[in-house]
Amino acid sequence: MGENADKSGPHIFSRFDGDIGSFRELILDMGQLAVEQVALAAKAVSECDISAVSHVRNNYRSVVDMDMDLLESNINLLAIYQPLAIDLRYLVMLSRTAYDLERVQQEALRLADLAETHHVHRKSASSSAYSCAVFDDIPYLSEKVTCMLSKTLEAVAEGSEEVALEVARRPAELREANQGALRRLATFIMQDPRLVQPVIDATVALEGLGRVADHSIGIARNVIFAVSGKDVRHLNVLNLDRAFLRS
After folding, report:
1. CB within 8 A of 150, min separation 6: which ones?
2. Domain region containing 170
């Protein structure tokens, strides 16, 4: 467990820390793969890269295997150790993290499917060279979202409520970037109505990246719960501080 979590003192089962550490490492491995999958799928959409689509789909099998291993490990940890207090909160946080990461992988898979659809549309479009500009905002948003997901994994690895709060406070920044991208997409349709389909594809891609960000924020809020015991899922984190979390 993270440094903050260790304040509860040594666990009566000497193997617990090692077993939950292994559980956490598997989740972090899954998380790193999720970051790579989202970045690769976004690249497939923005560059109409059909080879990247195949990589995303092939890697998803590894995700499914990890998810099944994590479910079994979670059941075993609960059955064997029956953890309480902060140990139980931490284990619940890890379990929810695994769920959110599996959802992130699903979004990467949807982006890959969208990239394949875009590839077909592009081949048949008379204005394909111009329509590529429709996807110019995807790499920028993808970088922001994958950075957020990586930061969230850092919060999980360190058991850090400070890092988790930093992630949970980012929605406004992403929302502004997303709205700017949508405004630019609207101008493409006004300039050339034939670009309706690529604009729809780009909009769907932006929505998918937005859902990845939502899952990252959900994980961050669960980290805060695990460390502080405060359920902040329905609170405005912009108004939270360490004094509240420690009260």
Report:
1. 35
2. 13-246
